[in-house]
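Quick note —
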Amino acid sequence: MQLDIGILIAFIIYFALMVWIGFYFYRKSNNISDYFLGGRSLGSWVTALSAQASDMSGWLLLGLPAAAFWSGLSAAWIAIGLALGTYFNWKLVAVRLRKFTYVADDSITIPQYLQNRFCSKSTAIRSVCAVIIFVFFLVYTASAFSTGAKLFQYVFHFDYVVALTVGAVIIISYTFLGGFLAACWTDFIQGMLMFAALIIVPVAAAFTTSGISPELIAGFGGSNYLNLFADASGRVALVTIVSGLVWGLGYFGMPHILVRFMAIKDSSMIKKSRIIAMVWVLISLCAAVFVGIVGIAFLGGRGVYADVGAAEVIFMDLVTRLFPGFIAGILLSAILAAAMSTADSQLLVAASAVSNDFYKALFRKNASDRELMWVSRTAVMVIAVVAYLLALDPNSSVMGLVSYAWAGFGSSFGPVILLSLFWKRLTMKGAVAGMVVGGLTVVLWENVPVLAGTGLYSLAPGFALALAVIVAVSLLDREPSKEVQDLFERAKAARI
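Predicted structure written out below.
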């Protein structure tokens, strides 16, 4: 494909807008609460779209359409799991977390909240949290960088390393400058762009494909291609369904999503945010699956792609075949939007863990807000460089990187966050034990062949084991102090 000047212009306009937002909010971030939590000032629309855009990384436009293209409708189980997880996260966690983090000494990070939740002076739990956040966000951020690299490689024919470098520089620049507010407002714009692109592209492909019908699609994909309960080869596997649905559990442990709940101006606004978020998620996930399924009819079969990894360019192929230069550039920017909206949030949360939960908690308890902001900005750079190095492999799968990090966070933090909000008997020892067991289970499950060979997504055993360990250790431990129990009751009754 030759470089189209219209695509280039669209990309330049998009980049300029994102960086301008970073500069604008650079002047608005006056203290550490502004930089990490936007001063708890977000409205319903920005909260909703920022949460969902930062959640749905490049896999929404690359990984999920590729899975649907290759496997058929059975790939939708992941989408179903994520839709359910989104709803229950907003329903069960959002309001309580907003209240609990405010009452718990106005906590601005998840590690700080967990320490304050137990009224503890020990920094042990914050340190464990910070290590988990650092490790798994490196993988997650690497997936976003890889998404951007594949886009630039496809559109501009850059060498992979050059493409990776360009994308990383753009993401780092506005995150470094603007902090949380820049991330949220860019996420809002990026979420709208992703939503529009995911609707326009498959609809255009469907109308362009002559005689499209379920029969035509099945003719190219196979007789079971549109069977929700079987893959394209006809195999019905319970483990595939369970592994897809269990993705929803990951939401309870995603720090970059949870901080959006903490930052909303008023907990009464969360109901409206939930409705906006669910509409966005349901339509976007359905459209992403539709991209893959319609794509097989539009392209006349799978022959153009060697495997599911190669099929991650299906969205880009459809865009460049269906739309003229400038319009194609705007729609392709949605891929970069997906990557950037996730990476900026992840870099920010990881940086907050380094500055607030390592640097301040362990070394500089009296550090000023200005000092912590610059430590955080430095951390953004360091984390980004390490993630960049992880993403250097051009054969890395966006879907593979995302699934690893998603399982790690879901297992480490999910059970702890849920129980911290709903179970008064939870103890700090139980919480720490559960986080460690959950994270280690995922690492072992992903890397030990006999475990990985089961086909079961590592989030399932990781979440279950972490939950069991938390409950067991907490019940064996001494009952929480009256101070901790009183804090729990105050937070539950708060109207904030």
